[in-house]
Amino acid sequence: MIRRRRNEGRGQRIKSKVPDSAHPVMIIGGAGFIGSNLANRLLMEGEPVLIFDNLSRSGSRQNILWLTERFGDQVQVELGDILDAGKLAGPVGRAKVIYHFAAQVAVTTSIKDPLCDFESNLHGTLLLLEVMRCVKKAPPLVFTSTNKVYGPLDDIRLRRNGSRYEPVDISVCTAGIREDRPLKFHSPYGCSKGAADQYVLDYSRIYGLKTVVFRMSCIYGPRQFGTEDQGWVAHFLIQALRGQPITLYGDGMQVRDVLYIDDLVDAFMLVREHIENLTGEAFNIGGGPQNTISLVELIRLIGDIHGDIPAVRFMGFRPADQLYYVSDFRKFKSITGWVPRTGIQNGVRRLYEWLADNHPEVLSLHHKKVNIQ
Length: 373
Prior knowledge:
By secondary structure, this protein is of the alpha/beta class.
């Protein structure tokens, strides 16, 4: 049964008494991997930030502690759930811009519990949009969607090229997947994020809200506490550091474009500069054709960095897996000039070094080794 919550804040005008100069950037899900990195950049540039988060994700409390120790009162933290419109109303009413990252983020979890996935991803996003619609002057909204809105892409003919798949169509191979590709939601996660994606765009068309959608590929970097179900680049590195085997689902030749977190934050910052030209549009955001890697190629790269190739075991393909996905980000580039600047080898090495120094499980292993000696 779907749990219902009171929706205070709907159907009424919300007025903020806070001066414009005190209006913070609101990051919903700001204690997570992406949110904490964006918050850090904004705070370093002197902007006040309000993080709205229920702290349910692994590593979220550690990220909040890191931010508050660095920036003190400049960062505000409000504990709350996106399903509670009453708690959203106040922060939304005084925000200068909203970044919405709160979500259930794993396909596997969505298959196990589709109702929870629906509540977090679609219901929560619609409640946020309704709260925004009730604000006298709604702030711009940036919503992070996913490449999964395009489905399995099984109509794209692929061939094997060494340790990876690649498209037979040279235009797709050299540029990636464009935003005008038909949407094809697969898995509860694809449905919930895809539907939320469309609501965010439609609230721009119908109600005049300033909204932008990023359909993102694989993001990686510091402050990512990856698991087997989500954040696979970090998860592979954590397994290597722990001396544990890595499970590959499928044959390991699946290809993704990966994007380092600093480059994604650059893109988020550019949205504010170009909001008038970006409003009501969806953009594919990823590392692009110059930052592609297959699963088995990442294993080899980790071996080079770690000094030892991790053990690998193979299992069957997961439902709704894409054998090939690479973002064509030229639409966003044409408006903002944005391009990724961090190459895969440099980015993966940086993440490896951060995890070695900061991940709790890795640090506990180091501690045990010291005690044994």
